[in-house]
Structures are given as C-alpha cells and as structure tokens.
Amino acid sequence: MLQDKFREFSRDTSGIGQERVDGVNRQADALMVEGHPESAAVAEWKDGLNEAWADLLELMATRSQALAAAFELQRFHRDARRALAQVRHKEKQLPEEVGRDLGTAEALQRLHSAYEHDIQALSAQVRQVQEDAARLAQAYAGEKAADIRRHERAVSEAWAALRGASQGRRRLLRDTVEKFRFLRAVRDLLLWMDGVRLQIEGHERPR
C-alpha cells in the first residue's frame, strides 16, 4: 500500500537524515568553539542546513497527511459502495408471496422475522457510512464534498427503502395470517353449527 510504503520511507529517511544533520551540527559547533576563522560562514551554513532539514521534514509530514486523507476518502467510497450493494441485494431477496393458507402464511411470517434480524446487521454499516460522510464532508469542499454527500445519500435512501419494504411486508404477512385465522374460525364455527343442526334434526319429532 502506498501509504504504508511512504510511512516506512519517511521513518527511515527521518532517522538517517537526523543522524547526519546532528553530525554536521556537531562539526559546525566544534569549529565555532575552536574559533575557526570562517566561523561566521560555518554558522550561516549550519542555519541554512537546519532550515532545509526542517522544510524537508515538513514536506514529508504534509505528504504523509495527504496520503492518509486520500486513503481515508478511498476507503469511504469503497465502504459506501459495498454497503449500497448489500442493501440492494437484500431488497432483491424480499419475496412477494404471502401464502395460500394459514400454515404457509405463518411459515413465511417466521422467515420474515429471520430476514429482518438479518438485515438489522446492515444498520451498523449504514451508520458508519453516514458518520464518515458527515466527518469527511467538513474536511473537503467543492466536487469532493458533493461526491461524498452523493454516496451517503444513495446509501441512506436505499436503506430507508429496504426498511420500508421490509416493514410493509411484515404488515402484509400479519394481515394475511389474521385473515386466514379469521377464515378458519368462521369455518370451524360453521362446521360446529352444522353439527348442532344435525343433532337437532336427528332427534325424534314430538308427537
């Protein structure tokens, strides 16, 4: 990974460079302490060297920060695309069948409860994308910020649509189960009334 390679390069360069700069500074200090006739020039060269070294360290730090920011932005886009794909995949798995009798309707209801528990695991991914987008959008401007918001909006809208479809199916299955239970109760009551009628008609008529 480019970020890791540059971090290693920066660490090695800083270590080696600092040793070399410290060594030259010690030489310069020794020359000035000894009263070298070019002490003024030595001091000037020492200051110039230290300033150049500080500039180089700042450049490496800036480059490292830029790479870290670019990596974080790329990771956000990857996570957003992955979350969006998973949400849409789950929505495609949502069946339309409600069952043709009470047994199948209740079985589908149980399956849907497991499905809702399954999609709930996606909520953490969606929330992470939303939180990352809110943080990154403040760090960027222009097209990049707009692109971050577009990705977050696509994930949030797909998640809202999935939850809405899941809740709608839950209500539909509940209504279907209630309908079949009502029809079963009606059928049982009609059968009971038929039985009572047969018992009544089966008795001898009074003379």
From TrEMBL:
- Report if keyword Endoplasmic reticulum is assigned: no
Coiled-coil zones: 105-139
**Which GO molecular function entries does the Swiss-Prot or TrEMBL record give?**
actin binding
Record carries keyword Cytoplasm: no
Q: Which UniProt keywords apply?
A: Actin-binding, Coiled coil, Repeat
Q: Pfam families this protein is in?
A: Spectrin
Taxonomically, the superkingdom here is Eukaryota
- Write down the Gene3D superfamilies for this protein, in alphabetical order: 1.20.58.60
Task: Spell out the protein name for this chain.
Answer: SPTN2 protein
